[in-house]
Write a structure and sequence with these properties.
three-stranded antiparallel sheet, four-stranded antiparallel sheet, alpha+beta
């Protein structure tokens, strides 16, 4: 088992406590003491892990110096190399732990604010690139000031969170969660200013302007527009949890909550018959949930710290004790697309996830609708209903078609 996962068994009690605390937060309640207690506990876990990581990095540096020493014999060198490997494994484990602690911070943010309104804070304001993660908070000059601001907001009945204890909010220092749109604040510990701070403030202002006006130059797009989801989202979180719980208990379970969509889970180390499990899926599109977790690609999606209901099952997933997949039948996707009037090309690349196309009367080139791969990931990581997805896309694509016809003067 990967050391970054196996290390988690030493932190099981903390993970259980964090899950209980997160589940105990009621965003409709104006008693913010549980919110502050959870954040304080996350900060405590992050600081402890940062200290251990720093210590291990120092030890690794000394081991590398020792390895280069000319006085080392071959047998000593082998012992040192073994210690270096263990140190690197520990460093990898602590880095993963920092990500896990922040997943509970993400849970706080997503409890208070819609995932659709949070997503811009993961990316750079002027490019489509994901913004760099937060650095260490240990020794951060402004941390006390930021925490004071969070507590002061609670006193004034406004929920707020430290941005540095999340993976998903990468702009600003404190995020106010009391409105439908999040509002981030850059906290300065002194009156000094520099180009970096000015860039940060400009980026925050551009995101706030975009959210306020529902359009603007953002993410490298000259005129990005934010529109409402036409139909209330539906998902199959209950079915997914049945699979996770069964896998934790050693069962191999496959559930199909609707045609073309399958949830599969089993205990890690078991030997499932994949041919039998996948024989009714003609064009499998597979989402490997464990891989998305260990590669830290869950940042902009609804957090698994919320979507997995049972704390034992959450631990089993985090620790790699269960293996989970979401499988979609591409042939069903294409059939569903045809029913709403479009051909579908399943691309799943950085350039595009799905490409919808439709022949328009009087035009040689077809109408094209491109759905980003990041959005398509929601089918697998947020357990979206396929029928909802296509109902929603039908309305959105129809709106784009209407705008196209208006532009060319045919409406």
């Amino acid at each position: 088992m990967d050391s970054s996962l196996s290390m988690l068994r030493y932190y099981k009690k903390h993970l259980y406590r964090l899950k209980d605390m997160l589940d105990g937060i009621d965003p409709t309640n104006d008693d913010f003491e549980p919110l502050l207690e959870l954040q304080d506990y996350i900060v405590e876990r992050i600081l402890d892990t940062e200290r251990r990581l720093k210590k291990k990095k120092t030890a690794l540096k000394e081991l590398k110096k020792l390895l280069k020493s000319k006085s080392n014999r071959k047998e000593n060198a082998n012992i040192i190399k073994s210690k270096i490997k263990k140190a690197n494994d520990s460093i990898s484990g602590y880095k993963y732990l920092l990500y896990v602690w922040r997943c509970f911070g993400d849970g706080i943010a997503f409890k208070y604010v819609s995932k659709w309104n949070l997503k811009r804070f993961l990316f750079e304001s002027d490019t489509p690139a994901i913004k760099q993660t937060a650095g260490h908070i240990g020794g951060k000059a402004g941390l006390k000031v930021e925490w004071h601001l969070v507590k002061n907001a609670a006193i004034n009945k406004v929920p707020a969170i430290l941005c540095d204890i999340t993976n998903s909010i990468r702009h600003g220092d404190v995020c106010l969660l009391g409105a439908s749109d999040p509002f981030v604040i850059e906290v300065k510990s002194s009156k000094n200013t520099n180009k970096r701070i000015n860039r940060q403030m400009k980026a925050i202002d551009s995101i706030h302007s975009y959210l306020k006006n529902d359009q603007g130059p953002i993410g490298g797009v000259e005129c990005m527009r934010r529109v409402n989801i036409p139909i209330e989202e539906r998902n199959h979180n209950e079915a997914f949890n049945k699979v996770v719980n069964a896998a934790r208990k050693g069962e191999i379970l496959k559930i199909s909550p609707e045609p073309g969509l399958f949830y599969l889970g089993f205990k890690t180390g078991s030997n499932p018959n994949y041919d039998k499990l996948l024989n009714d899926i003609s064009e499998p599109v597979i989402y490997l949930l464990n891989q998305a977790k260990t590669e830290k690609r869950w940042d902009n999606y609804y957090p698994f710290t919320l979507s997995i209901n049972n704390r034992e099952s959450l631990y089993a997933f985090l620790n790699g004790d269960v293996y989970l997949m979401v499988i979609v039948d591409g042939s069903i996707l294409k059939s569903m697309s045809t029913k709403i009037g479009y051909d579908l090309d399943i691309v799943l690349s950085e350039e595009a996830g799905f490409v919808f196309s439709k022949k328009l009367e009087g035009y040689d080139e077809p109408f094209i609708g491109i759905i980003p791969d990041q959005y398509i990931g929601r089918i697998g990581l947020e357990f979206m209903s396929l029928s909802w997805f296509f109902q929603n896309e039908k309305k959105l694509l129809a709106g784009l078609e209407e705008e196209f016809y208006k532009k060319i003067g045919k409406v």
